Amino acid sequence: MKPKIARFSHLAAIFAIVICAACAKKQHDSAFSTKNFHLTNENKMLLDTSWKEVKIEVYEHNTDDSKVKNITGQFMKSDLDDVIIFNRDGTYIFDEGNSKARKESLQVYQNGNWQMQEDQLLLSASEEQVTQYQVLTLTPEKLVLKYRAYKKKYFYILTYHSTKSS
Predict the structure, then answer these.
(1) Domains delineated in the chain
(2) Are 51 and 85 contacting, i.e. CB atoms less than 8 angstroms apart?
(3) Which of 73, 101, 138, 146 would be 7's cystine partner, CB 3.0–4.6 Å?
């Protein structure tokens, strides 16, 4: 029974971070619908692969060089095979990956629209919620995002690796 509780608490923590981020961020081009979506050379690097989160670090605001904690190890193995897939039409999905902690979990647990504005990656699960990440690194093999927690003294560095190269 404890693994289910642990799985739920880890997922709840991830969703709380994403939901708080979404609620805290201002609207960007109100309906950033796929109608206005266009691909650039830079954002094309997000396509044709699945991005697997490999490291999650927590830092204090305004002290980029003092790491608070690498929290990757706090997540269950089944959480760490989840992937983000960015589609050519400006949509994205969060997929459970190959393993699930619970069989009844949805394979795709979040979807919406995405776009890049300068060094910002914007994810919108609905017109009311836009989550903003600063893109620190984007190569065909690696994606590193910075997410500032709203009204908190921390920010997160999320590192993803491409699961295939085209």
Answers:
(1) 2-162 (2.40.128.280)
(2) yes
(3) 101
